[in-house]
Amino acid sequence: MSLARLNVVGRDDGCHAVLVGSEISRRHAEFRIDGPLVAVRDLGSRNGVFVNGARVQDAPVMPGDVVRCGEWIGVLVSEREGAPAFGEIGPGWYGSATLADAVEPARRLRADLPIIVQGETGTGKEGTARAIHTWAGRRGPFVAVNCAALPAELAEAELFGYRKGAFTGADQTSTGLFRAAEGGSIFLDEILELPLALQPKLLRVLEERRVRAIGETRDVPIDARVIAATQEPLGEAVAAKRFRADLHARLDGLTVVLPPLRTRREDILPLFLELLRQHAGGRPPAVEPKLAEALCLYDWPLNVRELVLLARRLLGLHAHESSLKKSHLPERMLVRGTTCADGLAAADRSAPTPAAGIERRARRATDDDSEFDALIEALRQADGSVAKAAAIVGVSRARAYRLIAAHPGFSLDEVRQ
């Protein structure tokens, strides 16, 4: 419901928005709108009004704030006419206006240009790439390549192919991944992990649209659209001399920056409910309001990937119960939710300051902790296999071992059955 048409909410039929529930008072709360400013006031309700997890009597609310009235949870958004509601943006890939707006340039793009998809871990870079492939109407296959998983000594052979006998172990001819994507798209995930020595060869392929397999003397023309993914801006890697400037320029036909889940909180709950529906065979358990609120307040350092793992975890442990409760959440989510509620909106909206740099460094350390927690959960599912767990979490095997090494008190024996 648009807040512009909203004033008093409650169970009473005379309210502007009638909310049904045992925890909703007849006249529960009033939203006041004064131009771009919005405030909420508790009208003496029995169960209170909460903004970002804290009970309030009369408080301003801003886009991104989480409001709870009884069993009803809402996230304030700046609505524009014609903004898409939550739904399937691409095959198996969901979001609402914030995400849809971020990828709209790629949806409209008609030229067959390379595209860079930039986003934090777990934001859905591969889902975006698959959607771009679908929108372009390319008839060939979509081939996904994790550059971080390519052994440096074999990366060229894997990408561009090789002739039988070209090197030790080349027992048969391989056309390579670029030619496997003929007529379609090749997705180069974690492009920054590509060996520096291979980058000029990739540049040549992009410029000439031809590949030469190892051991061959002739080039073969290719028709494969390149979509590259990175967690950090490639320009920063170029400045640090970790990536070639000319390759960056050649890849950057269009850059799509995916918003992290914490900046589109309105998507968290509907996405979680959709994941429950999918993984519960269409019959998901009910969700307790306080659990829903905690999900909206959590910062999701691993983004959608972490939400997927949580949905699977809760169903695996509590699907037999009548509802999922806040007490079912991992402890770190309960603690983070409280921290987030203390000043989430102000932190996100404030201008950059020296303290913001400290906060970003602290966030990175926190992200490592959450990534490690997710890895442990995946290791339990994979019976201690680091390679399988890394694939579940979406990190390279080397990254998984680095996370384990950073926690010397942890042993793989703890998760092996």
Please explain how this structure is put together.
The chain is of the alpha/beta class and 417 residues long. It is elongated, with a radius of gyration of 24 Å. It has helices spanning 97-108, 125-136, 155-160, 177-180, 199-208, 234-239, 245-251, 268-279, 289-297, 303-318, 331-341, 344-349, 354-381, 386-393, 397-405, and strands spanning 8-10, 17-18, 29-34, 37-42, 49-51, 54-56, 58-61, 66-69, 72-75, 87-90, 93-95, 115-118, 142-146, 185-189, 210-211, 220-221, 225-230, 254-257, 286-287, 323-324. Helix content is 37%, strand content 18%. Helix 1 (97-108) crosses helix 2 (125-136).
Structural class: alpha/beta
Distance between the termini: 50 Å
Number of helices: 15
Largest sheet: 5 strands, mixed
| Percent helix range | 25-40%
List the SSEs and their pairings.
Blueprint: E1 8-10, E2 17-18, E3 29-34, E4 37-42, E5 49-51, E6 54-56, E7 58-61, E8 66-69, E9 72-75, E10 87-90, E11 93-95, H1 97-108, E12 115-118, H2 125-136, E13 142-146, H3 155-160, H4 177-180, E14 185-189, H5 199-208, E15 210-211, E16 220-221, E17 225-230, H6 234-239, H7 245-251, E18 254-257, H8 268-279, E19 286-287, H9 289-297, H10 303-318, E20 323-324, H11 331-341, H12 344-349, H13 354-381, H14 386-393, H15 397-405
Parallel strand pairs: 1-2, 12-17, 12-18, 13-14, 14-17, 19-20
Antiparallel strand pairs: 1-3, 3-4, 4-7, 5-6, 5-8, 8-9, 10-11, 15-16
Helix pairs in contact: 1-2, 5-7, 8-10, 9-11, 13-14, 14-15
